[in-house]
């Protein structure tokens, strides 16, 4: 991935001027950049996307970037985190490095430094799974059931048209994958860009959002960057009212105005939007424009929930197992039975996360129900294995653990398990844990874990 066209960054930065300049520069380099201006928005973005790099400012209007990162880093699965500090924030940056962040940049810094880091991290092969997911766009696993074959046929039918397509379905069901599949099927369009607009993450400030979408100050926006490709409006129901009007005009006239420009620009991009919200209900409630809904929903394709596709579930589970397991692993009979019974409220995303976690935590080669659904095992036989693994210190105490103690105990137990699985080899364990060797040593020292 030294070519940055397939890479993505989530940036959490509240300074509109610095943030916008950086976003534009990264996007010009072909990096898909999601920008959150608050800690809350950043957390929402990180729960939905696995970027190749997280850039996080330390001071945010609604909280502390340090606390946010310390809380989320364990869930990021090895995605590198680079902290941005203003003058005077060095102490916090150092604390974050100790807590597992990968690097820091002291502001102001040129955008090129971020691009260099992206390349360097990519060479360390610490990228995330989304790029691999893209590879499966040509033949998506778990698209064999009758409803998915019907969806595939519909995508093929509408692929070469220009018409706007709306993809609906529950969260995590694979709407993003379907949008990429549509793009890949669309002939000449497939070699043009596929540009993602994360509608939920556009800045609340309309002018700033308009610059990102339509461009300004001589720089193109996302609509223009899509060229003759696909403009993918993810979670379009989250588009603020002011931007709904601009989008409607774009759909009707196929033209837009760069901010501050006099001449409109024509777009040849095809628009594909997704939503997991009930848009007609939003229209009825007056929070989504009826005319925009009408324009968007001409061709609406619905992705069925995973619980209605048991055959696909098995295919997908095996796909994720192959992807996350380095050694030979399988599903135990009770593991597969439990998966077939589970209602999968988080759909394919939940399945992916459960298999990934089970591969890392389970000791036996065959993943059992308790590895895939540890919350059920814990309910049946408290205390949790993670806590019981930390002898004396916590398991025998009568009063409840503080959050920090519980986190340390779980982390300590997990590091011990992974180290044991890797035969005590620090490099392998760090790789499996998605952290650097230095970070692992540091954590082991702090948590009192030794290599036996
Ligand atoms: N058929 C598939 N093969 C491999 N991975 C898949 C497949 N379908 C979905 N995924 C993975 O599941 C996760 C969720 O998929 P995706 O983002 O497309 O869902 P979504 O319906 O757009 O979710 P949301 O509405 O929450 O944005 C992603 O990591 C995606 O790569």
TrEMBL record:
Is the Acetylation keyword given for this protein? no
Residues annotated as domain Sigma-54 factor interaction: 144-360
- Classification via InterPro entries: AAA+_ATPase, AAA_lid_NorR, CheY-like_superfamily, Homeodomain-like_sf, HTH_Fis, P-loop_NTPase, Sig_transdc_resp-reg_receiver, Sigma_54_int
Question: Which UniProt keywords are present, listed alphabetically?
Answer: ATP-binding, Nucleotide-binding, Phosphoprotein, Transcription, Transcription regulation, Two-component regulatory system
User: Where is the PTM 4-aspartylphosphate found along the chain?
Assistant: 57
Give a Pfam family name. Answer: Sigma54_activat
The segment(s) forming the Response regulatory domain are 8-122
Keyword check for Phosphoprotein, yes or no. Answer: yes
Q: Which residues form a coiled coil?
A: none
Q: Check the record and name the PANTHER family matching this protein.
A: TRANSCRIPTIONAL REGULATORY PROTEIN (PTHR32071)
Q: What is this protein identified as? A: Sigma-54-dependent Fis family transcriptional regulator
Q: What is the lineage of its organism?
A: Bacteria, Pseudomonadati, Pseudomonadota, Alphaproteobacteria, Acetobacterales
